[in-house]
Amino acid sequence: MSHDPDVSRRDLLRWTVGLGLLGSASVLAPGCAKQLSCDDVSALSTPDTMRRKSMKYVAVSPKGPEESCRDCKFFTAGAEGQCGTCSLVPGPIHPDGRCNLWAAT
After folding, report:
1. How far apart are the C-alpha atoms of 51 and 104, rounded to whole Å?
2. Same domain, 101 and 71
3. Residue 61: what pLDDT?
4. How far is it, in rounded angstroms, from Cα 28 to Cα 31?
5. pLDDT in tens, 32-69
6. Which of 44, 74, 82, 93 is in the most buried spot, having the most CB atoms within 10 Å?
């Protein structure tokens, strides 16, 4: 009995596609909105990563929504469901975030 490598590849493809559909279904289900994450800073240089940390950026403002990035003069919103940017803090910025340079619009 010989082993057919195409069968295992086919099975792997079916399994992978099945997982993708399962993940999509959970995102698209009513009442299950996908949580926005702006934590991926892998594209930043070491100095930019250090700068971001020195400004004490956090994804959720400890001062509440009245002092969050969405109401800061340095923040530029991204498209619906996307991270924004900041003219002072490098990397992706969550609208609910805050840093120690926050300034009202």
Report:
1. 21
2. yes
3. 97
4. 9
5. 556 899 999 999 999 999 999 999 999 999 999 999 99
6. 93
The letter for the amino acid at 40 is D
Alpha-carbon dihedral sign for residues 85, 88, 91, 93: negative
Count of helix runs (H) and strand runs (E) in the chain? 2, 2
Kind and range of the H or E run holding 75: strand 75-76
CATH label of the domain that carries residue 66:
4.10.490.10
Are residues 59 and 41 part of one domain?
yes
Rounded Cα distance between 32 and 61, Å, is: 23
Of 35, 33, 100, 34, nearest to 69 by C-alpha is 100
pLDDT of residue 3: 53
Is there a single domain that holds both residue 48 and residue 21?
Answer: no
For 30, the token pair is 């009513």
* Domain span at 6: 1-34
Provide the domain count of the chain.
2
